Description:
- The protein is an alpha/beta fold.
- The chain has one domain: 3-Layer(aba) Sandwich (Rossmann fold).
- Helix content is about 35%, strand content about 25%.
- It contains eight helices and ten strands.
- It has helices spanning about 45-50, 90-100, 110-115, 130-145, 160-175, 190, 215-220, 225-234; strands at about 5-15, 20-30, 35, 60-65, 65-70, 75-80, 150-155, 180-185, 200-205, 205-210.
- The strands form two sheets. A six-stranded mixed beta sheet has the order 6-7-8-3-9-10, with helices on both faces. It has a four-stranded antiparallel beta sheet with strand order 2-1-4-5, covered by helices on one side.
- Helix 5 (about 160-175) links the parallel strand 7 (about 150-155) and strand 8 (about 180-185).
Amino acid sequence: MSDHIVEFKNVIKKYPGQNAIDNVSFVLPRGKMIGLVGPNGSGKSTIIKLMAGLVHPTKGSVTVNGKTANRRIAGEVAYLSELDVLYPFFTAKETIGFNAGLFDDFDQEKALEIMSFMQLEPDKKAKNLSKGNRGRLKILLALSRQAPLILMDEPLAGLDPLVRDIIIKSLITYTNLDEQTVLMSTHEVAEAEPVLDMVVAVRDGQICGMDDVDNIRGKHGLSLMDWMKETMAK
Length: 234
């Protein structure tokens, strides 16, 4: 087994009138909590969708766990979209049961444990949940998969600090970094910093920085936010 979970080789992704990703090459190690940071429109969501196999490179290759990232990669990847993908008339418990039927690696017992930890009401329909509780439920669904790679696109966006705090605690408590890698894009850099092992900075469709968080703090003496500002300014 390779020591990296993701590899991008000379990846270009073009949309009409735009180069979303511009000749990017990098690898991501296994067993880390990795933050993907950068301004809006920098290419973060496209990078995540390429890993999830939801979009395909215009040129180059993307592999996840040694397999080409395409629509058949679902068994390797648990993907949490920035969009609301919950069925409104399912209760939280029914949503768990539905996802258990979709994915062979879905751990229903773990999902119920996380639901209790997050203080979600099992019999409340998704349409009646607050935005914060809908966010918690989406995180729960991703963390209940045994997939080698968990991808989260802006899981903390638009949520109040208490909800963000319980989501960060859930990531610490329920992610098995012996067997899984988590990549999350986020603007909430200060809140995410305590849980991150590594950070990747994206600007204008290119990787402009990549480092271990311990190295950023220890060797460079910077907070993650200060490192991000410095990296983006280069």
